[in-house]
Amino acid sequence: MLEMRPDCERCGSDLPAENPGGFICSFECTFCASCAEKLDDQCPNCGGELMDRPTRAAALHDDFPPSTTRKFKG
Predict the structure, then answer these.
(1) Does 1 fall in a domain?
(2) Domain membership of residue 26 as a residue range
(3) CATH code: domain of residue 5
(4) What's the domain of life for this entry (predicted)?
(5) Is 29 within the bounds of a domain?
(6) Does 25 fall in a domain?
(7) What is the rounded CA–CA span in Å between residue 46 and residue 58?
(8) How far is CA 74 from CA 9, 11, 30, in A?
(9) Helices (runs of H) and strands (runs of E) counted in the chain
(10) CB 40 within 8 A of CB 14
(11) Residue 54, class by beta-carbon neighbours within 10 Å (0-12 exposed, 13-18 middle, 19+ buried)?
């Protein structure tokens, strides 16, 4: 199951699990759409391709909570 990280690692913007707009690589490094575009859809951490992150319905958050650990290193 995906962690569904709550923020963009590059700019720190919020990326709620139930909303579209997150991009991830195969290691789940997470970026917003704007940063993914600036990175030419290539993860700066592993070099992998950044893909659209699926959403998780808010109704599932109680049983399958998204991560609350922020990764922005700003």
Answers:
(1) yes
(2) 1-57
(3) 3.30.40
(4) Bacteria
(5) yes
(6) yes
(7) 30
(8) 8, 7, 14
(9) 1, 3
(10) no
(11) exposed
pLDDT-derived band at 74, boundaries 50, 70, 90: confident
Tokens found for residue 58: 């808010």
Q: What CA–CA distance (Å, rounded) separates 36 from 41?
A: 5
* Full 3-state SS string of the chain: CCCCCCECCCCCCECCCCCCCEEECCCCCEEEHHHHHHCCCECCCCCCECEECCCCCHHHCCCCCCCCCCCCCC
3-state DSSP assignment of residue 51: strand
**Residue 54 confidence class, pLDDT cut points 50, 70, 90:** very high
Q: Which residue is it, tokens 């990326």?
A: 15
Comparing C-alpha atoms, which of 23, 62, 44 is closest to residue 5?
A: 23
Length of the chain: 74
Task: Kindly state the tokens that stand for 24.
Answer: 């991830």
Contacts of 21 (CB under 8 A, 6+ apart): 15, 32, 33
